[in-house]
Amino acid sequence: MEVISPSVSGKSAQRHHVTGTVDLYLNGQQRLIPIPSSDPLADPLNLPQWRKWACVAALCLFGSIGLTVQAGIAGMIPVFIFEYSGLDPKMLNQMSGSGPVPAPPPGPHGHKSADMAKAFPVIPGKPTSAQVSMLGSLPSLFLGLANFFTIPLANAIGRRPVMLLSAVLAAATLPWAAGSTSLESHLAARCIQALGTGAIESLVPLILQDMSFIHERNKYIGFIWASGGVMACGLGIASSRIVADLGWRWFYWIMTIPAGLAFILIFVFVPETKFPRSQKSLDGDLSLVSQGQLRPEIDHGLHGRKRWGWTVFQYREWPQAWHTLIEMGQSLLLPNILWIILLNSASIGTNIANQMAGGVVLLLPPYSFPQSSLGFVTISLFVGSIFSFAICGIGGDWLAGRLTKRNNGLREPEHQLINLVLPIIATIVGNVWFGDIGEHPEKYHWIWFFVSNAILGFGFISINSVASVYAIECYPNMAGSLLVVVSALRNIISFGISFGVYGFIDLQGFIGTFGILGGVSGAIGLGIIPVWSMCP
């Protein structure tokens, strides 16, 4: 990291001048960093708490719809395999072997659920299960690609118009998916919808970074992911019932309603949070505040009285877009950011693979869940979200604060790395355990299927939220560019991890597939040791 001023002697003083390291405590009192300005109109740090939480709620609804449409459908891939094979999806209820679709014979890895290729009919001239499974994996690629456009645009014309455009795109493509008449059209609609949903990956954390202080970012960003997971779980369970009773097209029609509501709430409650903030403000320079104060006095005489502010376009700074692209290239030279990208990619890729394969495990014996219960695969998001917010959200802020106090009041980005240890372990354990359950389900009660899923969900959500906070704290001046690179590349790489998971399970079995994913996650997770040691 860049040393800003070598003139200050002493180890603590030198660390204070390292980019991302700030003096968070003064005489035992927690300071407000970045230091807000005296502007009550434009500075998002001066928003009242109720408005901040209203903004968070609107973004939560947006995120939960995106998670439901992407992750919820992934768990119902078996339904679409039958649909595009010209078969009635209700025949899935007979896959226990008692109906017209017999259970497959044991595969090369022991249990019949390991040989997924035999679990579904292969009809000449119809899409294969691998092609249909792209409904669950390919949108992840477009989630990543979206970030290459959203953040440069947000830095040029502001966060608010880009957020509104993303919300429109995410909602408007749902009727397209509902009315699609082919797999290709359905897949295209989901991919374009993912371009809008992609804002949850980078633009939403950037908005939260704009309006929050350094000591509360785990709480805000963790709440977005956790509450989104909780709502996505409820909607996911309901969606399987909708698909079973009304058909899968009604799932998209019904999701259009909350997606439209999310757009309205974003328009009303999400302000423009782009604000030119000085390096002194980001560093917490004491010269910006009077002695004994935490923030400057609001100057209504200079800036006027606070108004609601529904203006959509407030900026026309196109050079900022090019500057963002340059910073994106520079960020790829940062070893700790490259590690964060790989860690995120492993967690997202394994989560998508888990969601896609989990539905089949539940359908086949010995569990033999009915088609209408496939949405219960998303229960992992609910349990994982609750634990993630408690341990890595609220608990993450508390732990980072404790480490800061022990460090003589100096807050370092590396304090966030401690919050990643438990999620990394959870990702490893969850993968290996889920693989063994999928390979030998007769050894486990179905409740352990959901426990292993919840462990994976906890790791996935926690790594996503903590990694964003860590990247922002490391290089606050490059926050937008870093979020682009991290969010884009983790989704692109995770697509490669989850692509073809059905075929890989057929070749390697559940334990082979998810054992490898757990091993890869563990190997990447060990990178926390050199990242911690080489960064001050």
UniProtKB/TrEMBL annotation:
Subcellular location: Membrane
TM segment ranges: 53-82, 130-150, 220-244, 250-270, 332-353, 373-396, 417-434, 446-470, 482-505, 511-532
Gene Ontology MF terms in the entry: transmembrane transporter activity
Membrane topology per record: Multi-pass membrane protein
UniProt cross-references to Gene3D superfamilies, sorted A to Z: MFS general substrate transporter like domains
Domain of life: Eukaryota
GO cellular component, one term: plasma membrane
Domain Major facilitator superfamily (MFS) profile, residue spans: 74-536
Signal peptide as annotated in the record: none
Pfam families hit by this protein: MFS_1 (PF07690)
Keywords: Membrane, Transmembrane, Transmembrane helix
Chief site of localization: membrane
Entries under PANTHER family matching the protein: MAJOR FACILITATOR SUPERFAMILY, MAJOR FACILITATOR SUPERFAMILY (MFS) PROFILE DOMAIN-CONTAINING PROTEIN
The name this protein goes by in its record: MFS general substrate transporter
Organism annotation: Eremomyces bilateralis CBS 781.70
